[in-house]
Design goal:
By secondary structure, this protein is of the alpha+beta class. It has five domains: 153 residues, MutS, DNA mismatch repair protein, domain I (3-Layer(aba) Sandwich), CATH 3.40.1170; 56 residues, DNA polymerase, domain 1; 113 residues, Dna Ligase, domain 1, CATH 3.30.1490; 52 residues, no CATH class; 89 residues, no CATH class. 32% of the residues lie in helices and 28% in strands. The longest helix has 21 residues. Pfam families: IMS.
Length: 512
């Protein structure tokens, strides 16, 4: 086994929590759950006994007000990408171990700053000024030793060359993060890394296999893991400036065609495709209008030109709608910048030999219709949280990422259970619900009906159920929105969801 490489590990404690909650401190007592197991928790939660590895019920038993959020590894990686880019600016060759943990070779940066301890202190200062004061740095023989040093109480910990075994000896075997083998070691009475390293390598391989031999080498400070430095990001941004500002959307769209082609050429050279782009429009007053755009698969040059046109049309419509802001509105576009924000490996978007034709034709057809009708001419529906059916519908333009304003996973007491009506009326459709005598039905404060529903819009009622009261935003002026829901089936076998509010009846939806 080759000699361990001197490396520098940067550790950002509780990174999944920062990715989920942001950088505003202090964080309220919060735990991230995966499969009902705590994978991360804030310091305020740890003060009440919440620990990583606890089951959800046990953690909430320690702190009833504990806020529980689902763990999203993809979100952790997306949030850590800017940090990697920041480290890359100060020390090229950084390698991602996992979100919140990065490693780089110590030789280059330590030579430049006059030593490993000085280099680590300088990096801590730079990252602290950039908004990451929690960073911890460890330097040692190999990533395992350096990571263990970084998790110590000091901001910077340097393990001298050749002293990794002595440094690791007092640590418990659990730091190896292998439950199966550490469980066997504990049952055998081996509790520290020093005791594990003292075992013969042949005996360990015979008893625990190659994986056990690898862990014993880590415990002995012989970490020979190779580093794969993160390649520098290709320059994908392209821009164009106009000597004479252009005022028409079609003029600007025509002028940026070559710029869009240049962006696609840069993406092709990097073997990536763009799934999210930001377009910056600069007017002749120096004001910049920026907007991100998403794509359901990946952008091509014509898609980029369309987004420039749609952004200009939206700005023109906003100016026409609000003449007061006419002085601040653009009088002409002097520069356009197209910045790919999110890219993906081009191999993931290659058409398959079978089964991809329908999706491609669908996307092509919908995109053509959207080009003719405008950005908001074609929308897709997503489900959000809420008690009223109209509130649960979120319409998003084709190609945009649907963002639910109300979390559908949160509890919504009084909401309609599944199955939901297939047709939702926006706005609700007024109708008449009367009793057998033709009189309008009233509902008192206790939810009692003046008579049973017999007719709905002149059609006889076959069956009905209800009422179910719904009353939300009680603290709002006027008492909030309230009413009583019913399910009604008429003699034509049509099922309706209706509600009564203020003495009037409305059709909220209809079942198919």
């Amino acid at each position: 086994m080759s000699a361990p490489l001197r490396v520098l590990v940067l550790w950002f404690p509780d990174w999944p929590l920062r990715a989920a909650l942001g950088d505003a401190l202090p964080h309220p007592p919060t735990a991230l759950m995966q499969a009902n197991i705590v994978v991360a928790c804030t310091a305020s939660a740890r003060e009440h006994g919440v620990r990583v590895g606890q089951r959800r019920r046990e953690a909430q038993g320690r702190l009833s007000s504990l806020r529980v959020l689902p763990h999203d590894p993809d979100r952790d990686e997306r949030a850590f990408l800017p940090v990697l880019q920041l480290i890359e600016e100060h020390a090229p060759g950084v390698t991602l171990l996992r979100p919140g943990l990065a490693v780089l070779r110590a030789r280059g940066i330590s030579r430049y700053h006059g030593g490993e301890e000085a280099a680590a202190a300088w990096l801590v200062t730079q990252l602290t000024e950039a908004g990451f004061p929690e960073v911890r740095i460890g330097v040692g023989d190999g990533p395992f030793t350096a990571e263990t040093a970084a998790r110590g109480p000091q901001r910077c910990t340097v393990v001298p060359p050749g002293e990794a075994r002595e440094f690791l000896a007092p640590f418990p075997v659990q730091v190896l993060r292998d439950e199966q083998i550490t469980g066997l070691l504990l049952r055998l009475g081996v509790r520290t890394l020093g005791e594990f390293a003292a075992l013969g390598p042949v005996d360990v391989r015979d008893r625990f296999g190659e994986r056990g031999a690898r862990l014993r080498a880590l415990a002995a400070g012989a970490d020979s893991q190779r580093l794969a430095p993160r390649p520098p990001d290709p320059e994908l941004m392209r821009s164009v400036e106009f000597e004479t500002p252009l005022g028409g959307a079609d003029q600007v769209a025509f002028a940026v065609r070559q710029t869009a082609d240049a962006v696609m050429l840069a993406l092709g050279e990097a073997s990536v495709v763009c799934t999210e782009v930001r377009i910056d429009l600069t007017d002749d007053n120096g004001q910049v209008f920026s907007r991100p755009w998403l794509h359901p698969s990946c952008f091509d040059a014509s898609d980029l030109v369309d987004r420039v046109r749609w952004q200009l049309e939206a700005l023109a419509a906003q100016t026409a709608k609000d003449p007061v802001d006419e002085a601040r509105a653009f009088g002409g576009i002097s520069a356009v910048r197209i910045v790919p924000v999110a890219v993906d490996d081009a191999a993931h978007h290659q058409p398959g030999l079978f089964g991809s034709g329908t999706d491609e034709r669908l996307h092509h057809a919908v995109s053509r219709v959207q080009t003719m009708l405008g950005h908001e001419g074609v929308v897709t529906a997503a489900l959000a949280g809420g008690r009223w059916l109209a509130d649960r519908q979120v319409l998003t333009p084709w190609g945009e990422r649907a963002v639910a304003p109300r979390d559908p996973a949160s509890p919504w007491p009084g909401s309609l259970p599944d199955p939901l009506p297939a047709e939702v009326f926006r706005p609700p459709r007024p109708l008449g619900v009367t009793g057998a005598d033709g009189a309008a039905i009233r509902i008192d404060e206790r939810g009692a009906l003046s008579s049973d529903p017999a007719f709905i819009d002149g059609t006889a009622v076959h069956a009905w159920a209800g009422p179910w009261p719904v009353h939300e935003r009680r603290w709002a002026s006027g008492g909030g929105k309230k009413g009583h829901r019913f399910q009604v089936i008429d003699d034509r076998d049509r099922a309706w969801l209706v509600f009564c509010a203020g003495g009037r009846w409305w059709a909220e939806g209809r079942y198919r």
